[in-house]
């Protein structure tokens, strides 16, 4: 989080085309998601209503994902053009059962912009373990040839 004046700004994410910066700020008294031009200065545009955190751009640049104030994953369509404009916003799914940071994204969007990688806690677990398998297809092919 970055302290700017009397409010907190954080969770920055630059759009795929490098023209826009999405971030969260509590300047209204609660966290909301904003977008402003990048790297040049310019006016910010409010994206979220009634709370918003952890913005992440879709790889296509035509959507912005974030968590609303009810901890639901939301997508907002971005209208094409030289000026930034938001389109339809819709709720994708409840996200309260996933691990959420509130000040930086603890999720990522798949390259097809249709799936998410998120962390879900296990009831009663005291430790968290992440297992990552690299070159999974190559390993599968090798085992299949045995």
Provide structural commentary.
This protein is 6% helix and 42% strand. The protein has 146 residues and is mainly β. It has a single domain, classed as TolB, C-terminal domain (Neuraminidase). It has a five-stranded antiparallel β-sheet with strand order 1-2-3-4-5, with no helix packed on it. Strands 6-7-8-9 form a four-stranded antiparallel β-sheet, with no helix packed on it. A two-stranded antiparallel ribbon has the order 10-11.
Topology record:
Blueprint: E1 2-4, E2 7-14, E3 20-25, E4 32-37, E5 45-46, E6 52-57, E7 63-68, E8 72-79, E9 85-94, E10 107-109, E11 116-118, H1 136-144
Antiparallel strand pairs: 1-2, 2-3, 3-4, 4-5, 6-7, 7-8, 8-9, 10-11
Work out the number of β strands.
11
What series of H and E elements makes up the topology? EEEEEEEEEEEH
Major sheet characteristics: 5 strands, antiparallel
Number of helices: 1
Average pLDDT level: 86
- The overall number of domains is 1
For the record, give the distance between the C-alpha atoms at the N and C termini, rounded to a whole number. Answer: 52 Å
Radius of gyration: 18 Å
State which percent range the strand residues make up: 35-45%
CATH homolog superfamily: TolB, C-terminal domain
């Amino acid at each position: 989080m970055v302290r700017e004046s009397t409010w907190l700004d954080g969770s920055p994410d630059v759009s795929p085309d490098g023209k826009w910066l999405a971030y969260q700020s509590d300047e209204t008294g609660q966290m909301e998601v904003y977008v402003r031009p990048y790297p040049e200065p310019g006016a910010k545009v409010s994206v979220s209503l009634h709370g918003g955190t952890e913005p992440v751009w879709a790889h296509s640049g035509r959507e912005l994902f974030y968590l609303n104030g009810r901890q639901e994953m939301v997508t907002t369509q971005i209208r094409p053009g030289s000026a930034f404009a938001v389109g339809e916003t819709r709720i994708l799914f409840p996200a309260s059962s996933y691990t959420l940071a509130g000040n930086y994204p603890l999720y990522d969007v798949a390259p097809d912009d249709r799936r998410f990688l998120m962390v879900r806690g296990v009831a009663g677990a005291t430790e968290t373990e992440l297992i990552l398998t690299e070159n999974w297809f190559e390993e599968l092919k090798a085992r299949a040839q045995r």
